[in-house]
Write a structure and sequence with these properties.
alpha/beta; two-stranded parallel ribbon; eight-stranded mixed β-sheet; single chain; 233 residues; Glucose Oxidase, domain 1; 2 domains
């Protein structure tokens, strides 16, 4: 597994997730149509900076109680928290709700956001639900498929496994970048290449944006700006 410079990982928080997706098209063109969420997710705090970290994955259910004895349910929840706390950080939890109606019961609320934040987690991406919107841990980001009032019978089914949330397949240890727009997986081998790609795209876009925002803009100006933009390397 490729090691990542912590500074290079943290640097990616300077750009929103759409910009990261654009840059990935330059440095990893094979990722152009895969590796990102493709369904709407509710954002707990759109004002927060993007989050980027190593994935901790899990699956949950809530419609019915766990078939395990209560002692085993508690032990599994404790083992899940140990898993979240272990390994490199910062981390982003990605949880797939396996219920036929995902989000029937909320795993995320005041208590779990406080616990996970304390364990070094920056946020979560889930197709499940969230609640306690006004009481969640400050600075902890949540992207969830639903908002609901109850946790019902929510319980951890498994963790450290491959999950799929909103069309994005995630494995334990993947690099996840997320903000109010959604989330994307960043291949480890291109993390250090992204700042240069963002700079290139920013310079190219500036030519077109400046032209579009200047008086006298017309189709002729647009064509010249697009040609000039394409010449920037």
């Amino acid at each position: 597994m490729i090691d990542i410079d912590p500074a290079a990982l943290a640097a990616l928080r300077a750009w929103d997730t759409p910009t990261i997706c654009n840059a990935l098209e330059v440095v990893a063109p094979y990722r152009r149509a895969t590796g990102f969420t493709v369904e709407h997710l509710h954002c707990l705090d759109p004002a927060l900076k993007p989050i980027v970290g190593y994935a901790r994955t899990a699956t949950v259910r809530a419609v019915e109680p766990s078939p395990l004895p209560p002692e085993e349910v508690k032990a599994k929840r404790a083992a899940y928290y140990e898993y979240v706390a272990a390994g490199p950080g910062p981390s982003v939890v990605v949880i797939q709700d396996l219920d036929p109606n995902p989000g029937f019961g909320a795993f995320w609320g005041e208590v779990n956001t406080a616990i996970h934040k304390g364990l070094g987690v920056l946020g979560c991406v889930t197709n499940g639900s969230m609640r306690d919107l006004g009481d969640c841990a400050p600075g902890f980001q949540l992207l969830a498929g639903k908002i609901g009032p109850s946790h019902a019978h929510v319980h951890v089914v498994d963790f450290g496994v491959q999950v799929n949330v909103a069309g994005m397949t995630v494995n334990d240890g993947d690099v996840v970048h997320a903000d109010r727009h959604g989330a994307v997986i960043v291949p480890r081998e291109v993390v250090a290449k992204l700042p240069e790609a963002v700079d290139l795209l920013t310079r190219r876009e500036a030519v077109i944006l400046d032209a579009a925002r200047t008086g006298g803009f017309d189709i002729g100006v647009l064509k010249r700006a697009m040609a000039d933009s394409a010449e920037i390397h």
